[in-house]
Design a protein that fits this description.
The complex is a heterodimer of chains A (368) and B (479).
Chain A lengths: L5 H9 L9 H6 L6 H12 L7 H7 L7 H4 L7 H14 L5 H13 L7 H8 L11 E4 L2 H6 L1 H13 L5 E3 L9 H6 L2 H14 L5 E4 L2 H13 L8 E3 H10 L13 E3 L3 H6 L4 H10 L5 E2 L16 H4 L1 H12 L9 E4 L2 H10 L5 E3 H6 L3
Parallel strand pairs in A: 1-2, 1-3, 3-4, 5-6, 5-7, 7-8
Chain B lengths: L11 H11 L4 E2 L2 H6 L6 H8 L9 E3 L4 H14 L3 E4 L16 E4 L6 E5 L4 E5 L4 H10 L2 E2 L12 H7 L6 H4 L2 H4 E7 L5 E3 L13 H4 L8 E8 L1 E2 L3 E9 L2 H13 L6 E5 L1 H10 L7 E9 L1 H17 L3 E2 L1 H10 L8 H8 L1 E11 H16 L3 E6 L2 E2 L2 E11 L5 H18 L15 H7 L1 H14 L19
Parallel strand pairs in B: 2-4, 3-4
Antiparallel strand pairs in B: 1-2, 5-6, 6-10, 7-11, 8-9, 8-10, 12-14, 12-15, 13-14, 13-17, 16-19, 17-19, 18-19
Helix pairs in contact in B: 1-4, 10-12, 15-16, 17-18
Classes of the chains: A alpha/beta (368), B alpha+beta (479).
Chain lengths: 368, 479
């Protein structure tokens, strides 16, 4: 399971920790074991037979948000997250995963989602039935975090589409509501593959899939094919879909957005999917004030702490990471944080409820 | 020095007392943490870890967040005679952070708060666990810079810089860390707290800052510091020049500094370094290569570069222009990434022997060390930092790292290196400190100084709990 990552493990073990300052987990904890160097060193020592694979080693691999910022500061472009995810698979196989993770998997398997709720029913009460069409070719896939936590953002999405006279987008019915990334992040590859297959059947007719969640976009686009499930190759994040249309003037802007905003690049939208400009283009179309930037932004954006299953296994760490990111929001004039990912929104809101956190589409909806 | 109790203390009482102070989450005695806190970045430890060994492990690791917590931890450990090893980010190259006698590693990185940034006085006050890159990022947002960019910039702390008298890549222009320090707060072994006064200059007796600078955690734990910062440069100018011989290049830099020029960077590579390291970074100049970077106000930068080029021309220097030097500057940290592929694929180990001397001895020291080291290993020579009175010299040594006797061979090369440095009149360390690597040779070179150091240690840390075995040897058999 880990042998194919020999190069990654050795390179990080012998590296003078050059990405250390960028790792959100290492920065939040201050612990050397929770740096990419520390975690990889343990895997090296296990490989050398100097350390037994035990629960402590397993737990260390769950302390990675998979944000991939470490790669930005590695001349060798070593990717640590895939190694951690493979190690988590090993942890699951040997029943050494964190207790929270095991409970999470049981919970997920009951309802096909991490919230344990009937998300399809929630969605049906949220939107008019006319928006659900199982034969539609263009489908909006909201994702479980969005359905459960941000129903208003889903409503705003359809309000914006309607204002732009786009009536060919149907909402996915959410019978299998989750893309499965939470399972993947926790090391449950078998369950992830099963979820992927069911999802593949549900989405087989879609020619275009639009999601409101970058993790969903990446999972449907990249990780499902890796699990043997091929969907359409036209899968977009909502901001990718909207940006060219709004640039053409299709969004009727009745009142520009007047408050100050700072934009947070979600890791999966930015570093994984390379979508940096479209959210900014959309905001610039409707905002009176220039969008503010974090000092760590775009390719080098800092994590919100909501990725890699960290909120499940290490909620205090997730909060600490989000609070570090929010420091700059509190500086200077009062401002709201805008992003394009429900998991980021949730991470920030849980860390500090005094900050207004918005999705890009929420801002657009306020201007029509 | 007589130790009053055994070093091997992992008892429940200590754990409970530390947890009372810090809570359960900030005290660890986990196996994985003990392994990762058993080494710093001393290349010898890489050889050990390659063989699956981490010979010195602490019994516990603690993460205090305030000076008060550090004080309480030290009080407990002092009473129980438990060793405490202060730890920044573990980037030291001499083994100074190795817990030779076990005990408690006191990690300072949760003490990373910037207390004040005062742009008008160009001063900052912050806790010392802050990582260099984070501090610089914050300063830049206020229009300031520390001007301190060691190779370990992303994984070293302000406290580590102070405790090892670190130098950054731009030390020629901005000075070493001791030139930036204004005042500090130190917790002593018995838990008492001493703060030196924040004032630009003082004449109130000996400067206690200098007692703790370079003390490598053996005299106290530096928890907070006031530091001088600088305005972000308005302009930056780059140049690559070449000289036929190293001594001519050294003379050129000496003349530039004598004239009062202060390049941020003046880095002179010998032919071997130029044709390998610099070539790999896009510098295509030949012979010995001098990379110059001036920064600051536009008018001053222009004038200084003009004067520097005139000196170089007079000494026969060949100008390779701005673009070459700029290319190197853009990739200047890439050198740090070479260790991993060399270790993994070529079974080679990189290490750096860095020394310093006055200008009148610089060429001799360079020649003597190069000659001595070349008998055993491949050598790349650089003059990385220059000062009005002299310079540092750094020798990258490349040795084999794939057999059972690697450690013995490593030690032999270092004995050779330090003997050569001492015999040729060099200081044994310019900026990397002493740690485990150089103490024995230092003791032979400067016995009176080492005895003084022992005296101070006895006074400040009578139970020898602070980083035992560094800067003053442990009592034999005590650990």
């Amino acid at each position: 399971m880990l042998k194919k990552f020999h190069k990654e493990i050795e390179y990080c073990t012998y590296c003078p920790k050059l990405c250390r300052f960028a790792c959100p987990v290492a920065n939040a904890s201050g612990n050397e074991t929770q740096t990419p160097w520390g975690r990889m060193t343990l895997l090296h020592l296990v490989g050398e037979g100097a350390l037994n694979w035990n629960r402590e080693v397993s737990l260390s691999t769950y302390r990675c948000t998979t944000c991939m910022l470490c790669r930005e500061y590695c001349d060798h472009e070593i990717e640590v997250p895939p190694v951690m995810l493979a190690a988590r698979e090993k942890a699951v196989a040997e029943r050494m995963q964190p207790q929270e993770s095991a409970e999470f998997e049981r919970f997920f398997s009951e309802r096909h989602n991490p919230m344990g709720d009937d998300l399809a029913a929630r969605l049906r009460t949220l939107l008019p039935s006319s928006l659900f069409n199982p034969d539609a070719q263009v489908v909006y896939f909201p994702g479980c975090v969005m359905i459960y936590n941000y129903p208003q953002t889903i409503k705003n999405t359809f309000r914006v589409l309607e204002a732009m006279d786009i009536n060919y987008v149907a909402c996915y019915d959410a019978e299998v509501p989750c893309c499965g990334v939470p399972l993947h992040d926790q090391g449950y590859q078998e369950a992830f593959t099963k979820n992927a297959q069911e999802l593949g059947r549900k989405l087989s007719k879609a020619k275009v899939i639009i999601t409101g969640c970058p993790s969903c976009t990446y999972t449907l686009k990249v990780q499902l094919p890796q699990a043997g499930v091929q969907l359409t190759d036209r899968i977009y994040h909502l901001t990718e879909f909207l940006a060219p249309l709004v640039a053409e003037g299709k969004l009727p802007i009745r009142r520009p957005y007047a408050k100050r905003l700072i934009y947070h690049d979600p890791c999966y939208l930015g570093r994984y999917l390379h979508v940096f400009d479209q959210p900014r283009q959309l905001l610039n179309e409707v905002c009176r004030e220039p969008i503010e930037e974090f000092s760590w932004h775009r390719q080098k954006s800092y994590c919100c702490g909501g990725g890699g299953g960290i909120p499940v296994t290490n909620p205090v760490m997730a909060r600490d990471i989000a609070q570090k990111r929010l420091t700059e929001v509190h500086e200077g004039d009062k401002k709201s944080l805008v992003t394009a990912c429900p998991s980021c929104m949730r991470a920030f809101e849980k860390a500090d409820d005094s900050v207004e956190v918005l999705d890009v589409v929420d801002v657009l909806a306020r201007c029509i | 020095m007589t130790r009053k109790a055994t070093r091997k203390t992992t008892n429940v009482e200590l754990l409970n007392q530390l947890r009372d102070v810090l809570g359960g989450r900030r005290v660890s005695r986990g196996e994985t943490d003990r392994l990762n806190y058993g080494r710093d970045l001393w290349p010898r430890s890489l050889l050990e870890v390659r063989q699956g060994q981490v010979p010195h492990q602490p019994d516990m690791i603690v993460w205090p967040e305030t000076t008060e917590e550090v004080s309480r931890v030290l009080r407990i450990c002092n009473e129980m005679r438990v060793p405490v090893v202060p730890f920044g980010a573990g980037s030291g190259l001499c083994g100074a952070a190795q817990p030779l006698c076990g005990g408690v590693v006191l990690d300072t990185k949760r003490m990373a708060r910037i207390e004040r940034i005062v742009p008008e006085t160009q001063m900052i006050v912050c806790q010392t666990g802050i990582i260099g890159a984070h501090l610089e990022n914050e300063l830049n947002r206020h229009g300031l810079t520390m001007g301190h960019f060691p190779g370990s910039f992303g994984t070293s702390t302000l406290g580590g810089y102070l405790a090892t008298r670190s130098a950054g890549m731009a030390a020629t222009g901005y000075g070493k860390i001791e030139d930036m320090l204004i005042s500090m707060q130190v917790v002593l072994a018995d838990g008492s707290v001493n703060r030196t006064r924040t004032a630009p200059r003082r004449a109130t007796g000996p400067d206690f800052n200098h007692l703790f600078l370079g003390s490598e955690g053996s005299l106290g734990v530096i928890t907070s510091a006031s530091m001088r910062a600088h305005m972000l440069p308005e302009a930056r100018a780059y140049r690559a020049l070449s000289f036929k011989k190293m001594d001519v290049g050294l003379a050129a830099v000496r003349q530039m500094l004598r004239l009062g020029l202060r390049p941020a960077i003046a880095r002179l590579s010998d032919e071997a370094d130029a044709s390998t390291t610099l070539h790999a970074l896009g510098v295509e100049a030949k012979d010995c290569v001098l990379l110059l970077v001036f920064e600051g106000r536009v008018a001053r930068v222009d004038l200084e570069m003009k004067k520097a080029l005139a000196i170089a021309r007079e000494l026969g220097g060949r100008d390779f222009g701005e673009a070459t030097a700029q290319r190197w500057y853009g990739r200047r940290n890439s050198e740090q990434y070479r260790q991993s592929p060399l270790m993994t694929e070529e079974k080679l180990l990189l290490d750096t022997v860095e020394v310093s001397t006055v200008w009148s001895n610089a060429a001799h020291l360079y020649t003597a060390m190069r000659k001595a080291l070349s008998k055993k290993v491949s050598v790349l020579g650089v003059m990385p930092h220059a000062y009005p009175e002299g310079c540092s010299l750094a020798f990258t040594i490349i040795s084999r790292a794939g057999s059972a006797d690697d450690l013995a061979a490593y030690d032999a090369v270092w004995r050779l290196a330090l003997d050569a440095a001492a015999q040729a009149g060099g200081a044994l360390s310019h900026a990397h400190g002493i740690g485990r690597l150089k103490f024995d040779r230092l003791a032979r070179q400067s016995p009176v100084a080492v005895e003084l150091l022992r005296g101070m240690k006895r006074r400040l840390d009578p139970n020898d709990i602070l980083n035992p075995g560094k800067l003053a040897p442990c009592t034999e058999g005590a650990c």
